[in-house]
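Q: How do we represent a protein-ligand complex in a form that can be generated token by token?
A: Start from the inputs.
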Amino acid sequence: MAIINVHDKQFETYLSDEVIGQRIRELAAAINSDYAGRRPLFIAILNGSFMFASDLFKHLDIEAELCFIKLASYKGMKSSGNVVTSIGLEDDLFDKEVIIVEDIVDTGKTLHNFLPKLQHQQPKSMKIATLLHKKEATAYPLTLDYVGFEIPDKFVVGYGLDYDGLGRNLKEIYQLV
Ligand code: 5GP
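Then emit the structure tokens for the protein with guanosine-5'-monophosphate bound:
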């Protein structure tokens, strides 16, 4: 098992790039089948979801649109969850089939606070795809439609996720030792 350092902390390999890739192909297959003949708009939440969104999107064979938005930032190792606003959402969501793409759902506060703002625009449907879900930590009611991996309540980095700005470029996902 590989041990790496990011800033002052040690992390060990948790999910390999093969395992992540395989699971993303399964999620894409499910979306291809669920959305056959429809044209979903994927709204990926920056920064953490950029790799997941990119790999998921490559495996879609349906017509689909993609945009990236930014919400409140996440600092250090505890979720702030104080989402106020989003930047970059230019599409009008009225009557659209929206799929939110998240890197990780922890307490659920971010999405729980943000989804009503999107619902306000009256999309035809709205689903959530998240690569990681810390089920034990989730305290806000949220329906997750596509989940890559249920993971324990431990801090992770890699594959788009950072620890204070670093670690996003790692191909694998690492867990705090
Ligand atoms: P929530 O609002 O669900 O508590 O937190 C969601 C956000 O917190 C995620 O989009 C992510 O930015 C951040 N987050 C939660 N857990 C982790 C983690 O283990 N590692 C990293 N890098 N970010 C996390």
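The first helix runs from residue 17 to 34. The helical segments are 17-34, 50-58, 109-119.
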